[in-house]
Design brief:
Rossmann fold, alpha/beta, 4 helices
């Protein structure tokens, strides 16, 4: 069984947000387009408290119950079946969806007989990277949809993709996500 995972496509990570990914909003139409190929879709969200230790390393962003923490308004949230929030506790960073605190992501995957995870979202060199590597460690087949991922620094994104490839993540194109054939 396949799962589409939308990683942190939140207002604060898009242009105009508190910690923007350049062109971060450009992944939204691609994600919306590939959603039709999946029966099960999940999304992760940073959901930090105002006093998070995460903000020792980063500017405040995705503070729970704020506009910045909401998923991008153009993202087809009506198609998303399950939401996983991470970085909820003051003392956690929550880079990977496997660190979600509102429910256990790995347990969810097992309960739904997921073997293949197709990853999209922001930012490639941080949360997308950590989620991808963790998914491989848990034994899943992991596919990164290249046009549906964006990052902050092009060189860091390139290095993150190399790390993912080396770990066993398959980097695919949007056109490879046509399961009707």
């Amino acid at each position: 069984m396949r799962l589409l995972l939308v990683v942190d496509v939140q207002n604060d990570f898009c242009p105009g947000g508190a910690l923007p990914v350049p062109k971060g909003d450009e992944v939204v139409p691609v994600i919306n387009d590939v959603m039709s190929e999946f029966d099960l879709i999940a999304a992760s969200q940073d959901w930090h408290p105002e006093d998070s230790v995460h903000f020792d390393d980063w500017p405040p962003h995705c503070v729970k119950n704020t506009k910045g923490a909401e998923l991008h308004s153009d993202l087809r949230v009506d198609r998303i079946d399950h939401f996983f929030r991470k970085g909820i506790s003051r003392d956690t960073h929550g880079y990977s969806v496997f660190d979600a605190e509102n429910r256990d992501f790995n347990q969810f995957l097992q309960e739904n007989n997921i073997s293949d995870i197709y990853i999209t979202g922001l930012a490639a060199e941080y949360c997308v990277l950590q989620t991808s590597l963790a998914a491989v460690d848990y034994g899943y087949n992991v596919y990164l949809i290249e046009e549906a991922v964006s990052g902050i620094d092009p060189e860091d994104v390139k290095q993150a993709k190399e790390k993912m490839r080396d770990k066993g993540v398959e980097i695919i194109s949007k056109k490879d996500v046509d399961f009707s054939a």
